[in-house]
């Protein structure tokens, strides 16, 4: 499928890029993506350049290599670039090498997704989700200076904590970011939005019960649970699946917290893989293949 020429360009670049932002939330909706982009722009303007550059690098790499046009337009080759661009901009100090690094990481994430999609089509692999971002993110954090282990002190406001649980998906810790992201989800899929809010609420509540007060109010126990809930939110006939995904993501977070670098979205990815892998072993019927569903 590789080609050295630009072939079958995306009919709408703006839509493709915005879909990349919404695909972080496992949705395909440009307005949802616009809400996510606004959340970054208004609450962390120093990170928006990295997010856009990472998304664009992923999309351009996919186009340059002639990857499937529909998948490019759906944002499947951009969403990991969004996240890795955010993380690099957040974790590393500004220097002349930062933009080329984001471009290289965004392009590499696109190639990893492509290899994953090729093997996932016949059911050989589980969906990629944000695994490329996690792998590249761990490499980024290994290069960064060690960060303080303590969470930023914030007001003990449960509603703000609920919003932060959604904002932390994009590495944002302002309640406004979570409100904008929730608005985007409501536009894309109200049912999915409710599950995401429930996941954030359960994650924060468990953290409070476990004595992780500041982590709870910072939303650090909410974002993986919210993503896990989103991944299975279409299983309307089996609501226990998103609930189980939430529980698994929360249960895995302390174990992954033992790593020398932040776990990022690894608890979400592993929780979904465990559920899907178990379902395949037991031959349970499922309509679940999130990245292909939203392409």
From TrEMBL:
The keyword Transferase does not apply. Keywords: Cell membrane, Membrane, Transmembrane, Transmembrane helix. InterPro entries: Ammonium/urea_transptr, Urea_transporter. GO terms for molecular function: urea transmembrane transporter activity. It is found in: Cell membrane. GO terms for cellular component: plasma membrane. The chain crosses the membrane at residues 31-62, 74-92, 98-117, 129-149, 169-187, 192-209, 215-233, 240-258, 264-282. It is a multi-pass membrane protein. It comes from the Bacteria. The record marks 265 as: Important for channel permeability. Its main location: membrane. Belongs to the urea transporter family. PANTHER family: UREA TRANSPORTER (PTHR10464:SF4). This is Urea transporter. It comes from Pseudomonas tructae.
């Amino acid at each position: 499928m590789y080609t050295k020429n630009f072939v079958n360009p995306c009919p709408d670049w703006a839509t493709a890029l915005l879909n990349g932002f919404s695909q972080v939330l496992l949705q395909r909706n440009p307005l949802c993506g616009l809400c996510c982009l606004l959340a970054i722009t208004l609450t962390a303007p120093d990170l928006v350049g990295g997010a856009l550059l990472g998304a664009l690098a992923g999309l351009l790499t996919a186009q340059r290599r002639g990857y499937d046009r529909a998948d490019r337009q759906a944002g499947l080759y951009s969403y990991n670039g969004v996240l890795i661009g955010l993380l690099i901009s957040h974790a590393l100090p500004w220097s002349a090498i930062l933009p080329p690094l984001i471009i290289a990481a965004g392009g590499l994430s696109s190639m990893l997704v492509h290899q994953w999609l090729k093997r996932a089509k016949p059911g050989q692999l589980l969906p990629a989700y944000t695994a490329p971002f996690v792998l590249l993110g761990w490499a980024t954090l290994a290069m960064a200076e060690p960060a303080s282990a303590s969470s930023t002190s914030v007001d003990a406001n449960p509603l703000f904590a609920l919003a932060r649980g959604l904002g932390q998906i994009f590495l944002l810790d302002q309640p406004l970011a979570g409100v904008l992201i929730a608005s985007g989800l409501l536009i894309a899929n109200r049912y999915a939005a409710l599950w995401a809010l429930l996941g954030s609420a359960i994650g924060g509540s468990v953290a409070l019960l476990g004595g992780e007060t500041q982590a709870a109010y910072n939303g650090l126990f909410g974002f993986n649970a919210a993503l896990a809930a989103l991944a299975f939110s279409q299983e309307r006939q089996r609501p226990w699946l998103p609930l189980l995904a939430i529980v698994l993501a929360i249960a895995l977070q302390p174990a992954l917290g033992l790593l020398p670098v932040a776990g990022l979205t690894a608890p979400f990815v592993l929780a979904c893989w465990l559920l899907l892998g178990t379902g395949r072993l037991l031959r349970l019927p499922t309509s679940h293949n999130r990245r292909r569903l939203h392409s």
